[in-house]
Structures are given as C-alpha cells and as structure tokens.
Task: structure prediction
Amino acid sequence: MPSETAYDLTAGLRGLGGGRVWSLMISLFGDLAQGEGDTIQGPVLSAIMAALDVRPEAARVALHRLRNDGWITSTKMGRISHHGLTPFGRLQSAEASPRIYSTPDDVPKYWQLILLETPEADAQSAAIEAGFVQILPRVFVGAETSEPPQGAVALQGTAAVPDWLRNEVTPAALREEYALLEKALSSLCDALPLAHTPSPTEIAVLRCLVVHNWRRLVLKHPVVPSALSRHDAPAHKCHVMVADLLARFPRPTLDEIEQDQAG
Amino acid sequence: MPSETAYDLTAGLRGLGGGRVWSLMISLFGDLAQGEGDTIQGPVLSAIMAALDVRPEAARVALHRLRNDGWITSTKMGRISHHGLTPFGRLQSAEASPRIYSTPDDVPKYWQLILLETPEADAQSAAIEAGFVQILPRVFVGAETSEPPQGAVALQGTAAVPDWLRNEVTPAALREEYALLEKALSSLCDALPLAHTPSPTEIAVLRCLVVHNWRRLVLKHPVVPSALSRHDAPAHKCHVMVADLLARFPRPTLDEIEQDQAG
Result:
C-alpha cells in the first residue's frame, strides 16, 4: 500500500472523477505495459487499482469489459493471472502515446491558416480530421506540420500572433476542465518533494493518475502549435506540469513493481 | 474632324454610354492637360467634344458644373477661352493616374490574406479602404504591398492559387461591364492598324474614350494582385488592351492638337 503521504498528494487527481474504470485501466496498461509481451500480474493490478480508489468488484467488471472489447487478454500461470494488452490494444496505445507523452518542447512551433473553397460539412470534417482547429466556416488554423485537405489554400502563419487569435484557438469547451486539472497538478507539484522516496507502486499510481487525467483532455482536441497557444492558459500549464512530473518520476519496470508488492 | 474610319472604330467605346459628360470631360483633361499650367483652348475642346458625340449645349453645361465644383478654371485671352484643371482637379487626376495608366506588368505580383479580430463594420471598412477585397466577414485578400489595418493578422499569399479563389476575388458586380468593355476594345484592336496615320485630334479622342471607359471600372475596385487575377477574365484582358492602345497611340501635345485644329 502506498504511504499516507503519496496517497494524500494524489487526492486531487483522483478527485477529478476522470471517467470510467476501464478507461483508467487503459491509461495504466498504456503507461506500464505497452511493450510486446508485457503483462501485469493479477495481485499487482489489484493493489494498484485499490490505490487508485477503485473497488475490487469495479476493477473485475472493467477487466471483463476490456477483454470482451479486445483490448486486454488474460492468461493463467499456476494460480496467478497475467493481464496484457492485445495487439489491437497495443496499437491504440501506441497511436495515442506521442500526443500524451510529448513535452511542450516537442509541440510544433509554427502554424498555418487554411481557407476552404466551401463551408460544406464534408470539407469541414476533412480539415478537422487533418488536425486543424476551426475559427470560421471556411477558415482553420493548425500546426505547420499538418497536411491541409485537398484543394484548400494553405498560408504560412506569422511569427507575431495577437492574443485574440490565441484565444480563439484555445479549446473553449475544455477550458474549465483544464482549469480543474491545473489546480490538482499545481497542488501536487507544490507539495513536492515527497518526505520519503516513493515506492515503484506509488510511482505507478501517480503516473497513472497524471497520464489518465491529461489524456482525457489532450486527446479531445488537435495539437495547438506553440505560436498559437497562450502560455498563461491552463492547457499549456498542465502540459508543462505533466511533462515535469513524468520526467521526475520515471516509469518503474513491471519487475520492480512486482518485487515491491512481493516484499 | 476625325476621319470616318477613326470615328467608326471608336463607335463601340462611345456606345458604352459611360456616365455623364462632366465625367468624360475629366477623363479628357486628366489625359491631355494634367500638367501645371496646361490649358485646352475653347475651340479645341469643342471640336474634341463634338468628335465624342457630345452636343455643344451638353458640353457647356458640363464645363459650367466643373467650374462650380472647383475642378476646372477658365480664363479668356482675347476672344479665346482657355480651360485648365484647378490645383484641386490636378490633385484628383494625379491620385487616380497610377491606377489608370499602370500596365499589367506594374500590377503587384504577390498577395496576402488578412484575418480581422471581429466582423464589425468599422473593421471591414478599414480593410476595404486599405485596398483589400472581402471574401468572408473577417477575411480579406489584397496586394502584398497594401498596408493591413491595425490589429489584423496578415499572412503571405501562396504562389499557387486555385481558380475558385481567383473567381471570388474578381469584382463580381462589374463582371458584365468588363465583358462589354472587352468586346468594344477587341473590335477596335482587331480593326487596327488604321488605313491612314491618325491626326493628333483623332488620337486625343481615341485615348479619351479608352481612358474614360477603363477608369469608370478600374477605380471601382481595389487592385487585384496578378497572382489572384484570372488572366482569361475580361478585367485582365481589358487591362492588356488599354495598356496596348495607350502605348500605341501616345498622348499628343496640346500644341500638336491646336495646330491640327488650326490647319
């Protein structure tokens, strides 16, 4: 069990109520066991889920669902179950990882504006799928590295960007959720360093909470190139803290967590 | 009097019905007598106006109006009146001349797109006054050489421009008028060269008709940078023919016309 201290520190993140247990479990497997052949032992998974405040019954239901949906496969060796991502689950995790684990320095610097020929729904969808943010029926902005949809006129972004444009690009629907995450992450960061060296399990739990709450927001909108993002906005501040925390608490190996639990 | 031939050739241009007589007279003075101290003698002016199919009474009324509005000043020397632009009239003519007399090669090559913060009327007016063409409530395009209004984001235009954007930039309201002018200019150009060398007065009349009918359209919309203009559109074809005709028939001096009339 994690010490009172580490558990207390992550109360804010646990309190955000980030969606369903199966989703939290995907965050956990994606962070700890994305490698081919990686598995988490049943007792280790139970201990981590307990530390995440998930009741055993809820954890069992989530695991069942993920097996049915083809995300996770379980094999019994002796009396112990070993749970791992399926090839499908690994692929999904791998596709999301660059966005989740990129640091603020990895974010594309430069931007572009695209003008569509028509405001038709199909054309708008193509632009959104290509990773652009809509600001007018026929006008979108995005990272310079994004491929504009066929037929659009694409103009290179300027170095200087006024705040009103940055504000338009900030994902408005997620503003409040980013503000709540910023608050939780700030309290956590402010309380660091921990009084004692955290155990591998404590680190796994902390990382899972950080990754999970971050992933829920960041994957809901296209990447905002740094020239267009407000560095004083919660979304950017969250990104900085997430990257700092994940670097400060490197991913423990599954062996380390197993030994921690066995000891 | 101009020969039948030259007179016939300009029938198409006279037939376009380009506005009021006072406006035609401004085109004439702007083309022939824009220099400081330039004046047109009464009998010469009457002869040219007659060749332009303007009745003497209509010419007198127009001249009266232009004097009242401060465009033209008349002085009597002996029995002959001398009519010339006032400083105000010369300034107006000088301001319009670059646009009227520029050749297609003078037109700015490159373009820019500007995005306004708001679609408010004031902001739109500022963009239009700065020489930009509106394509969306907050989006305008114009020559790279135009100064964007304060606060707008200005993006450099691309080298490749799709036809749909060129079509949006073509002054739609003037499309039909440009088509009519193209037809008149084409018939004139097709009938060249003239069977005889035209007299200075014939050239003055021909130039006046070309300048007048061109000026009435081109001054009604901002300059369209060549990257954005359709070279197969009437507006561009008119520009090419106007520039060719004005180069082919250089402006006669006032002395040459006077001698022509006296002879």
In short: The mean pLDDT of chain A is 91. Chain A touches chain B through 18 residues (CB under 8 Å).
